[in-house]
C-alpha cells in the first residue's frame, strides 16, 4: 500500500493546505487549521487541461473547509499538472485541439481519452483515499464525498460506482457517452449539473444520463446558457449538498 | 384603487404577521418586526386546495423575512381559504375529485380550472401589489419577486408575464399545457422546480415549458421522486435565489 507523504504545507484564513504524494501521484489536501477529531472528506476531480492547483479547486475546497469543517483533496489526473505527459497524452491533446480548431465534434476524441485517463485514475483515487483515511483528522469509516465536472466527472463516475466508501457525489458537464454503465451502478445521492444550452454536450444525452443514475435521491440542476464554467451558484449548492449528506446531524 | 386594510396583527420570533384585505381579497403580509426602510417584497401563491394560512406559506415567509430581511405576502386564491366558493368552483372541485378517484387524467379538469382562477387572480395580485407598495416599509420602485407552485404557478406565470414590477420568479409543479404563451413572455430570472418522476405531470411537458421561458437566466431543478410536496431543499434554494436577484448588493 502506498503511504501518504506531505511535501509542502501552508496555512491561511483558518485553512491548512498540504501538498502530498501517494506513490507518484501528487495531490493537495485542504483541512480546517483547527481540526481536532475525524471529519468528512470530499475528494475532488479537476477538469480536463486543468490541474490540482486550479483556482476552482482551491475555491471549492475553501467552501467545504470553512463552510462545513470538512477536508477536501484533489489529485493531478494522469498527464495533468505536475505529472509526466506521455506521447499518447500529447497525441490525444493535439487531436482534441485539432478538432476544436476545425469546429469538428469533440466527443470522438474526448470520450475515449477520458476513458483512458479514468482507467488509470480510479485506482489512484482509491489508493489516495486509503492513505488519507490513515490520517487521524480524517479517519476510517467517516463520510466521503466526490465532486468533479468535465474530466473530473469522467473519472468520478466509475470511481463512485466502484468505491463503496463514497456516499454522495456531485457531477456535471462532460459527454455522457461512456458513462451509462457507471450511472446504473451509482446509488448514492447525486447532484448533477448541466448547461441547458450547451453547444458541445447534447442536452438529450445529459438528461438521459441523469435518468440512468440508480440513486433514489438525485437532483438535476440545468442552467441556461452554454458557459464552459460552472454556474457560480452551483459551487454553493454543492457545498450545501455535502453538508446535508456527509454530516446530516449538523444544523 | 383598492386600499389595503389590516385586520389582525401578531408578532413572534422577529416576524410581524398581518392579515389584510385589498378590496374583498384577504391576504397575509409577513415582515421583519424591526423593519426600518423600504425592503424587497416577495409575492407568494398557494397551491390548489390550500390557502394563505397553509404552513408552507408561513414557512417560506419565515425564510424570506429572517433570512433576507424581505417582506412576503400571499393572497387567498379565488374560491380558496376565507373566500366564498361559487357553484362553479364546487363543480370544478367535484369533477377533479371524481377524476382522481377514478384514476383518470387530472389535466383536463385542472388546466381549465386553473386558467379560470388565474384570470381572476392576476388583477387581484396586481391590485394587492399596488396597495402593498403604498406601505413605507415596502415602497414603490423596490424589487419584487414571485414564488408559487401548483396553482400558485398557474396564477404566477401570467402574473409575471404581465407585471413588469416583478423581476425574479420561482415556479414549479403544475401542468404546463396552458402556460407556454406566458413562458415566452417571461424574461426575468426564473428558477423552475419539477419532479423527475412525476406520475401526474409529464416530464417532457415540464422540460418543454422550461425551454420556452424567454429568460436569459433560468435554472431547472429536477428532483427524483414523485412527491406532491416541494423537495425540502428547494425552499432554501428559492430563498437564496431571491436574495441574489432582489438584493444583489447583499453579501
From TrEMBL, chains A, B:
Q: Which UniProt keywords apply?
A: Hydrolase
Write down the InterPro entries for this protein, in alphabetical order.
AB_hydrolase_fold
Quote one Gene Ontology molecular function term: hydrolase activity
Organism per entry? Streptomyces bauhiniae
Q: Does the keyword Hydrolase apply?
A: yes
Q: Spell out the protein name for this chain.
A: Alpha/beta hydrolase
Q: What is the lineage of its organism?
A: Bacteria, Bacillati, Actinomycetota, Actinomycetes, Kitasatosporales
* Database matches in Gene3D superfamilies: alpha/beta hydrolase
What SUPFAM superfamilies does the database record attribute to this sequence? alpha/beta-Hydrolases
